[in-house]
Amino acid sequence: MNLLLYDYSPVEGTIPASSGPAVDCAQLCAELQSELDQGRIEIDVLFAGKGGGARKNRLRLFAPFNGRYCTQEYAGVLSYGGHSIQILSRFDRPGGQTAQKNYFLSYVLSRAMDIPVASFPELKTDSDSGELWDLLLAKLFLDQLREACSRGLYREYRTFHRNDASPKGAIDIAGQIRLNPMPNGRCAYSAREYTLNNPMNQLIVAARDCLLRDQGAVGRLVKNALAENTDLRVRLQQIACSMDAFHAPSNQTILHRTGRPITHTVYSGYEPLRRTARLIVQRRGLDTFQTGASRVSGMVFAIDKMWELFLEKAVFSQVKDCRLYAQSETKVLEHSHTIILDFTVEKGGRRFLFDAKYKAGWGALYAGEKDWNSVRNDLYQVISYMHILQSRHGGFVFPVSKAGGGAADFRLHDSLPDTVHLFPVLIPQSGEHTSFGSYAAQFEKNCKGAAERMSRVVDSDI
After folding, report:
1. How far apart are CA 220 and CA 198, in angstroms?
2. What is d(CA 287, CA 294) in angstroms, rounded to the nearest whole number?
3. C-beta separation of 345 from 458 below 8 A
């Protein structure tokens, strides 16, 4: 059965069971989270940006809030307990008779991960479609493969047992007696080689083939990427040519052989690629996302981190005539601790500190609720950064679903010139657009408006 959820939203309702009473959605998600907390199951967290793997050991998909069980900052697709669970963006939630449209996720992913926007209009937008996640996997695979191969192709020592006329290793006496009872010019032997023909490269080729077999947007994305990147295409061909085409292992065997993490320091860049390639083969080569195929499988990504990448490319890149620093680090407490600022803008000797936020509380605050307690930790963090870096301006950039609201600039104290600015980014309503193209155009216009207001603040003499 399918369960459709949205980020930062309550888990409610029930889903029918094939036999017996209906399953309570909150209870099912609580059971899944309990399994994660106890380390009995693992779910891959995908994120191509800086610090993307930091959350894997403390994955929190669901948590209680105000007496209700709610989703957190993750979006993705899972299969657990015979049920398919999709977590989408709350900004794509349909209203009334409007069908499910994943326009917000599609546009954010296209800008944040440099996926051509033209790849998305042909995607199905119903809630059961998995193409959105397949496209994300394909993009991650290409990026990680490009990064890993730039440091050299993956090789490892393997022992091969051969029987031919050109022995190059230790003679295999038992194999010689078994395979060559009569003189025939051949010799059985074993050779240890530092080779490209290994399970990791077999996994890479299997994942590539799974993606290229797709006849839709995913296959076209991979084909176009390989056509444009000659070096990557040649490296993949070199890997494929090193394989023994007559003794190729099955996808199930490849997954079994690549289950352990890569710990060799020289090939550390291949570890994220291994996880992504395994997901691709599992999803498209074995259909393990199908209901009942496994106890748990799937992938999620932190949408708040994806929102940061999106803002950098869609909003902050349009703030002209200034220096922008994303994810800049500053040592504090005698260099024993590091603070990381989402965005730092410098112009005319002044420094502006901006924090990207995706929590629903910021939208409610801008709508006029004036409840600073709901975002207290975020506020204190930026105020402390302003004090440490001697900045008079701090700001928060967050998504909102409705235009308007209260004040957008707040003085910290009557005796101080320091100011906190709110920069809402208006999210178009998916149900009001008949095509992804019109939605993307409106979203781009709204991002430009947020950047223009930010430019006015940076240029001001406040």
Report:
1. 28
2. 10
3. yes
Classify 67 as helix, strand or coil.
coil
For 170-213, what is each residue's pLDDT tens digit? 898 999 999 999 889 999 998 888 899 999 999 999 999 999 99
Beta bridge partners of 411: 419
3-state secondary structure of 227: helix
Q: What is the DSSP letter of 386?
A: H
The set of residues, in sequence order, having a beta carbon less than 8 Å from that of 316 and lying 6+ positions away, is: 324, 326, 343, 345, 354, 451, 454
pLDDT at 56 over 50: no
What is the rounded CA–CA span in Å between residue 88 and residue 8? 10
302 vs 73: CA distance, rounded Å: 6
C-alpha closest to that of 420 among 440, 401, 395: 395
CA distances from 144 to 46, 224, 310 (A): 11, 17, 19
| Diameter over CA atoms, the chain | 100
Which of 221, 243, 200, 9 is closest to 109 using CA atoms? 221
- Which SS3 state, helix, strand or coil, does residue 268 take? coil
- Quote the pLDDT of residue 432: 83
Check residue 396 and give left, alpha or beta (phi > 0: left; psi -120 to 50: alpha): beta
Predicted TM-score of the model (pTM): 0.79
Residue 274 CA, chain-centre distance (Å), reads 15
C-beta separation of 71 from 85 below 8 A:
no
For residue 253, the tally of other CB atoms under 10 A from its CB is 12
- Would you say 99 and 108 are in contact if contact means Cβ atoms under 8 Å apart? no
Give 248's contacts (C-beta < 8 A, 6+ positions apart): 202
> Residue 298: what pLDDT?
77
How many Cβ atoms from other residues are within 10 Å of residue 76's Cβ? 22
Please tell me the predicted confidence (pLDDT) of residue 131.
75
